[in-house]
Write a structure and sequence with these properties.
Helix content of chain A: over 70%
Number of domains of chain A: 1
Distance between the termini of chain B: 57 Å
Shape of chain B: flat
Oligomer: heterodimer
Distance between the termini of chain A: 70 Å
Strand content of chain B: under 5%
Strand content of chain A: under 5%
Number of helices of chain A: 8
Number of helices of chain B: 3
Structural class of chain A: mainly alpha
Mean pLDDT of chain B: 90
Structural class of chain B: mainly alpha
Largest sheet of chain B: none
Number of strands of chain A: 0
CATH class of chain A: Mainly Alpha
Low-confidence stretches of chain B: 1-5
Shape of chain A: elongated
Chain lengths: 206, 95
Amino acid sequence: MNHRSEATLSEHKDYTGAKLGMWLFLFTEILLFGGMFLLYAVYREVNTSEFHEAGLEMSKTIGAVNTIILLTSSLTMALSISAIKNGLKNRSILFQAVTVILGVVFLVNKYVEWSDHIRHGLYPDSPELLAMGHGKVLFFGLYYVMTGIHGLHVLIGMCVIGFTLVLTLRDNISRGDYIKLENAGLFWHLVDVIWIYLFPLFYLII
Amino acid sequence: MEQKQASHIVGTKTFMLVWIALLILTGLTITAAQLRMGEWSMVANIAIASTKAGLVLWFFMHLKYEKRIFKLLLFVPIITISIIIVLTFFDIWYR
């Protein structure tokens, strides 16, 4: 007997279960970032004017551009899923590729931004920052940790989508079975949602 | 084995409209920040951000077309973190 078809016949797929599993994971991510947003909320409440001043060091332009980049990448990710559901394999692959490229641009912007701050002595434990006082130390500590962990999630998301791109090429993800791509999309959209909150909190305190 | 029901396929037009709405809201939140409304700036920005997040969740993350249990379960982490933040602030404000 052909072992391959035997394995396929006994394979159990649970579409709703797989999707639910991903959502449950996303809930843990909401609590993870939620905890950090809690820290931000409290420290800002207690150091309002210093957070205000520290916010002036941020580039609204880079923040806005990065927001637009992630929002667009969510669009392309959603379109890649609609494409595969319609059996449009190449279109799906194209949109997945664009999503990853937008992720790269986002991270390059982050690199430029962080480099600029670091060059000006605004990094954790720098003498310049320590001299600026407790409130600013807290602001920049939160800034690096929150955008850093977020950036890590962007990188992870890009790797996951790179993976789904290959799977789509190999027809492992197809019109008949696309839950892996949907779940990758859910993760990517969550990364976008987190940035949607990070943007006003760090860049628009003015 | 569960038969996968034909999952609703969202059209390109819907996604494009949502994307444009998101861009407009982004512009709005930047403008609102310039208005110097003091603490209300923060409230306005969070409200706009939540609207944007809602759009991403409802359309991009397909929540609109999912079974009701997904919509209900989402409230668990949202309410949890809200309670945590509110209770923490009761402490902070009255220390």
